[in-house]
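REQUEST FORM: STRUCTURE PREDICTION
Request ID: SP-0412
Submitted by: Lab K.M.
Chain count: 1
Length (residues): 421
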Amino acid sequence: MKKNILYSLLTIAALITTGCESLDTTQFDQNVTGNNDGKLDSKYVLSPTLNLYNGQAANIAIGQVDMTSVVGSPPDATIASSYGNAQILNGKLFLQSSYDNRILVYNRVPTESGTSADYVIGQENFLDTGFGTSNTDLYNPRGISITPSGYASKYSSMLIVPERFGHRVSIFNTVPEGNGGVSDVVVGQSGYDVPANTSCTAVNLHDPYNAITTDDGKLIIADAGHNRVLIYNKIPTSNGAAADIVIGQSDFTSCSAHNGASGLFFPTAVWTDGRRLAVVDSSNHRVLIWKTFPTNNNTPADIVLGQSNFSNTARNDDNQDGVQDVTPTARTLDYPYAGIMTNSSQFFISDYSNNRVLVWNTFPTENFQPADTVLGQTDFFTRTFGLSATKFYHPSGLAQYKNDLIVTDANNRRYVVFSGN
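STATUS: Completed
RESULT:
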């Protein structure tokens, strides 16, 4: 632990002396190491623990003019239904607006509802919302990430964009700084402007929902429609690269849904600290955790949240009789979807169909471990949706900026910001 602290201090000092002090430390949220006791140690610089409470009200809405509106104008300040975690780089906020086929970029994280974006990626202007398959188009972007999120690549940053209906992941070798943007590499298809191929192979994707990277240069994709997670040992530099490892299937030509410790059914989000892996296994109503990062195909998970064992898959099944209960509890899930996050101590899941966000105060270490805090509801036994400062309608993403939590509120067409001070 002392070595980790010393390393972080020396690294920060080096950044300042080399003129790189403007780097935003929130981009390093995924880079954590952990002990067997579930506590998270700092490898680089981690976002602080958030002080949150059940039923807490959000402060602002990004994508809407206030906390009780769902409007479609002006086009530079509105969000279509969106899925995945917000991203922050050097103080800039990147928000996927999935059904507008674009990513909105704010030069500063907004502090007021209704703030307009500064530029847009995937479109030439704020009025366009069309889709396409060229290297300048996006087709339903979801679960974007900005990478590398640590210091491993000497401060270069890449934008990684899964496109669900394009059945591909577009890689921008540099993050666009103005309208439009041109991607450099496509994963999941043989190239740009080609008919989508969703075959079950090591090359092709079907409904990719999320893509992230590790600091040693691996790319991880939640290939939801193929019921698997793909791992590339190096971030691809040419179109149509084949994956190296598959999780959730025994090989690259098997794509059926399964339960069990090795099975997946429509996974929509992934998280890693480089040592461990977590997967949001949406249609099995659970989250799987690997204590050691997988290096072989079909590696079984070690921990399951939302269920007491790896065989059960019913939603909101607290008594584990295989039948959905009337109400959720602190340890059940109903279609967890697209959102997973950690900070220096906490673990977060967007529990989509229960219209809530669950927070564990420490990284989970046991099956069926109950959450400690709930947002979107006043207690763990309620699941109603709504349009207000305290309610969600299908939350589908999570991010942290300094002491604030940013939640993607999909069907309310907004991102809401909670203060964790």
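NOTES: The domain at 24-419 is CATH 2.120.10.30 (Neuraminidase).
Reviewed by: T.R.
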